[in-house]
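Quick one:
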Amino acid sequence: MAAVSYDVVREILVRLKDVTTLFRCAMVCKGWCSLLVSDDSFLRRCLPVPEKPCGSALFAGFVTKLRWPVGQPPAPCFVPAPRSVLGRHGLRVLSSFFPSARHAGFFDHAVPLTSRHGLLLVCLDSDPSGVLLAVCDPLAGMLHELPRLEHYWDFENTSRVGGYALLTDSDCSSFNGDGDGLQQRTRFFKVLIVTVEKSRVHYTLHAFSSADQSGWNTRSGVVKDEEDKNVSTMLRQHNAVVCDGAARWLLWGMAGVHTLDVSCKTGHVSLIRMTGVQLHYFRDQLHDHPYLSIDGEGKLMVLGLRRDSRELEIWTSHKDGRSFQASMLKLKDQNLPRKVDVYTCLGEKHGMILIKDNNKHVYVADLKTGVMHEVKDWPRSNGLSRRKTVPWEIDWPGFFVSQLASAV
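Output:
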């Protein structure tokens, strides 16, 4: 019998929509495994992401520190979003994803920091001698403990926390190390930690790459704006947004609104002024602190939520990534007739924004439709803050690849 070409096999496999069946096909032989793993676009054809309801195929929920069960010390917990594919498990502590953790209290003092493509960056411990970080893959049950970083970290003093970013192989596409390509694609990550002084943009940048076993690389310098001027500003959002090949942190001050950009490939640091974003929204008491994110087309955007209503101001960047245009979105939820006095934005991921109110309720709002859904599986705990709450999305094709990597 004549051999069937891989082109024909590809057209057959692309019609399979079940993850389990695809996994079994990938285990038939090395050729089929390579066919499935080597092409991200092919996987996304096999595993399309439905737009409804509420982008739940990607947005899984959020990780935050809670006293749960009640009376226990606060620990990182995963809270599923409405209609999340992981919702059937309900609220669960983060340690339950990692049965092989070194000991039962491994995550007792951990604080979630940021997430990217299904990975989660957490601070395991912090003291004057430095900070201990880890990159976790909750679905795969794997974690990578990083070398201790000599960096003063105080979560009770927001000016000393600095900023952090988590990058993956798709962000740093210039990574072409030797060895097994499949393992590189599924295990590579980079962590960036940055601090910025207010008087002038003097930065200190710490970088760790899973491909480099030498530990943290540290450098510092002074960065000026496009007009070669020193700028007095402050870092206002600790978790970075990854957009157009750079990790970007939001800064603002008397000189206006800026982003501090660090190139994912080269590490080059630059300061970019954001024009069109109205500074008075950042200062008045009617609006929550603005939140930097990206929209569904990969464009930079800034979210400004009114504290006393469900109005959301959205500034979206043009192609140049520097000039922004404003629009207004009215959030709606017909199922919540109760009066709410104050709204607060906790974060955004993949078009879904997390919001809490002064009655300790939490909602997920769709930035396309404006529809809000209350998070039911929620203990209405005190202390929920933007700084310790991380929205978490799941890259299902990426997870599929990681499982193949662990099986072959």
